Amino acid sequence: MSTLISEIAENLQETIIAVFSVSDPDSGDNGRMVCSIPDDLPFFLKPSVDNFYTLVTNTALDRESRAEYNITITVTDMGSPRLKTQHSITVLVSDVNDNTPAFTQTSYTLWVRENNSPALHISSVSATDTDAGANAQLTYSLLPPQDPHLPLASLVSINADNGHLFALRSLDYEALQAFEFGVGATDRGSPALSSQARVRVLVLDANDNSPFVLYPLQNGSAPCTELVPRAAEAGYLVTKVVAVDGDSGQNAWLSYQLLKATEPGLFGVWPHNGEVRTARLLSERDAPKHRLLVQVRDNGEPPRSASVTLHVLLVDGFSQPYLPLPEAAAEQARADPLTVYLVVALASVSSLFLLSVLLFVAVRLCRRSRAASLGGCSVPEGPFPGHLVDVSGTGTLSQSYQYEVCLRGGSGTSEFKFLKPILPNFLAQGEERVNEANPSFRDTFESS
Questions:
Q1: Boundary residue ending a domain (94, 111, 126)
Q2: Which CATH number covers residue 286?
Q3: Nearest to 193 by CA among 145, 142, 138, 144
Q4: What integer is the mean pLDDT of 283-310?
Q5: Are residues 255 and 351 in the same domain?
Q6: 36, 74 Cβ separation under 8 angstroms
Q7: Alpha-carbon dihedral of residues 20, 26, 30, 34, nearest 10 degrees?
Q8: Could you give the number of structural domains in the chain?
Q9: Which residues span the domain enclosing 150?
Q10: According to the lineage, what is the superkingdom (predicted)?
Q11: DSSP per residue, 130-162
Q12: Which of these, 14, 266, 345, 392, could form a disulfide with 433 (CB 3.0-4.6 Å)?
């Protein structure tokens, strides 16, 4: 039995594998022949003239399912006894790039702790290709991010040969907590085939932020002083320390502790909310000024902390004027000299204005006193300038009048005398309205 090797590409329909002929020198039925192959193979024999046969594929072959076939061709004559002979053909199925790469996962979730060192190996992505040779050799790449503002090229890179992912720089949880991108795997076939997978990177928080105190501010300015009445009961709320932490989870859980106090045992700090309260009743023997040092600590590993200084002033009551601490007043004066200059300038302007008003009043009084001593009459130079009395009952005075005041020395009385109106044609109308409104008023003036 001889063997013939033939190679055929996969995915071809009714492809000729081999053409051969058979012969038998006998005559009659002894020389008639029948060729056959096993029925479980995707091939068939196609007879032709002069005992020629063609071996043809029955269906398209798939190299990924079976890459090699051994076909035994049996030739039997019709004599008695029947004689037979066999020939073997080995069919090799060659690969065609008909399979796309496949990732082991459609999506990957990776965790990276913040403050990582650059070039850190995060993880790997992997894909396989069921083809053979160059058709199965893969190249990995990063795909453009969906978010155009994500600086992916500066965050991660991928090894084109093995799919290893190396953070390019240190990641900061407070700036970027998570980001997502795509990776591609492309084979080297012709035409090349590729596939994609999604990668999501989660940045894990590290305890790299200390607590920050929002109140009271510790910015180097004059310290804030809390007032506490001496009549306060035990548990009186003095103030509350407010702090935040830029971390997350247990790294941001804060606790408060009183480290130092001017008089231990007088004040206490609640550990969970930062409330500063009196621990007992106050007495006259307690010092009026107290300084408290409070520590704020997070629950990270290792823990981080910050401290804040509180100033407390004991007063007899809230009606008592508040006087800042001497050192605080001095620091405030040095820190804000502009305020002092503004106060001095405002006081100077106010003094000059008050002095001008006093001089004006004095001059007016002197003139009036001189006129009274001479017993003369002073007549203003123009019409009556102020708000006039309504004598017509209509709410307005339709014209202006001139008047004179005659002061007689020693008499202690003054006479009020109307002069002629500026516009005589309105005088009659004015007198008629006065007479109609109040006749007794007219009689009074006539008798005088």
A1: 94
A2: 2.60.40.60
A3: 138
A4: 94
A5: no
A6: yes
A7: 0
A8: 5
A9: 102-204
A10: Eukaryota
A11: SS-GGGG-EEEEEPPPSSTT--GGGT--B-TTT
A12: 392
